[in-house]
Design goal:
The protein contains seven helices and seven strands, in the order E-E-E-E-H-E-H-H-H-H-H-E-E-H. It has 203 residues and is of the alpha+beta class. The protein starts with 15 loop residues before the first strand and ends in a 6-residue tail after the last helix.
Length: 203
Amino acid sequence: LIIISVVIILVVGLGFYFSQTRNGKEESVALTEDPVLGDTQAQIIVVEFSDFECPYCALYSKETFPQIKKEYVDTGKVKIVFKNFPLPSHRKAEKAAEAGECAFEQGKFWEYKEKLFENQENLSVKNLKQYARDLGLDSQKFNQCLGSGRYEKEVKQDYQEGLEKKIKGTPTFFIDSEVVFGAQPFSEFQKIFEEKLKPEQND
């Protein structure tokens, strides 16, 4: 099964809604305390629903995400919000998602996310803890967080939200009012970004 990644722009710690239009109908995506990457004042908002066992999510993470980060996130034009969408068929994805939240608690979500996608075939709890150590996280705090299931509810809420948005597979990206399905190449994102960054023309 293909898992959907949706990219949505988020401001950490703020609870608000991002509106999108699909089939002529406006929908809203809740933006709460999810990981965010980029300038809070960035013009373009991207929200990502992803699964750590999804091979297409890993492909995007390894090949496309670095280019988006370099060209658009680091330059203050785009910000990315991450939400979890662990498919039930992926047995280790939900715990990996919880581990990502525990890393976020220590300010290392984006580094930990990349670590998980780089080691997608090795997502046992033992390995999840080892990756945290590799990145210099406080092992005692991380292990306690992961063992307690502190973020199980939050991960399930992300998943439920994805279902309500008719997400069926990953990766899928919501970029403001547009939806991009699948691990598309950088050029596809670039087209959308450049169109949205054009100055408004006054007739």
